[in-house]
Specification:
By secondary structure, this protein is α+β, with helices and mostly antiparallel strands. Helix content is 23%, strand content 33%.
Length: 177
């Protein structure tokens, strides 16, 4: 299996874990419309971090910085209230942060990720915005029906689009150069 295939499968797994974790949350603990200033100001810095989460931090450091996650799926920390999951490697160091829209049980929106890149790209940005800001992606993946993944490998960013709008952002610290 080639490296690109493995990377795609890891990304797909991250999306599945993120969605599964969101569905397991207790939405009664968090109001779907409440948003702290910290959540609104989360900045994605390719190769560096997502808000207070930095690539290479330990799981213990993430918990010390952000508090306990809303839930865990295996070793993945799901911060559903903020719309992201932190995915460590086997050694417990942060390697991927998955940001996106999360749905709880039924059709109730638990929390959508409110952060953005410093260039202003976030949830619901469209494909044209991405191309204008980052140029042509290094790879485009259409393997999931109704979705398109635009990968910017040198930045360690993958934007998953649904209906031409950003639905998930994968920040992969392993790929950023």
């Amino acid at each position: 299996m080639d490296t690109q295939n493995i990377a795609f499968r890891v990304g797909t797994l991250a999306v599945a874990v993120f969605i599964a974790g969101a569905g397991c949350s207790d939405s009664s603990k968090h109001s779907p419309n409440s948003q702290s200033a910290a959540e609104a100001s989360i900045i994605i810095e390719p190769g560096v971090g997502v808000g207070k989460v930095r690539g290479g931090m330990t799981v213990q450091q993430v918990v010390a910085e952000l508090g306990e996650p809303d839930n865990k799926t295996g070793h993945v920390l799901n911060y559903v209230r903020s719309g992201f999951s932190v995915i460590p490697n086997r050694d417990g160091a942060v390697r991927v942060v998955m940001c996106g829209d999360t749905l709880g049980t039924g059709t109730v929106l638990v929390k959508a990720f409110k952060g953005r890149t410093k260039e202003g790209i976030g949830m619901n940005s469209n494909r044209a915005d991405l191309i204008q800001v980052y140029g042509e992606p290094t790879e485009i993946d259409h393997s999931e029906p109704g979705h398109e993944a635009l990968k910017y490998r040198p930045l360690g960013l993958t934007f998953t689009l649904q209906n031409d709008k950003v639905h998930h952002i994968i920040v992969d610290f392993r790929e950023a150069k």
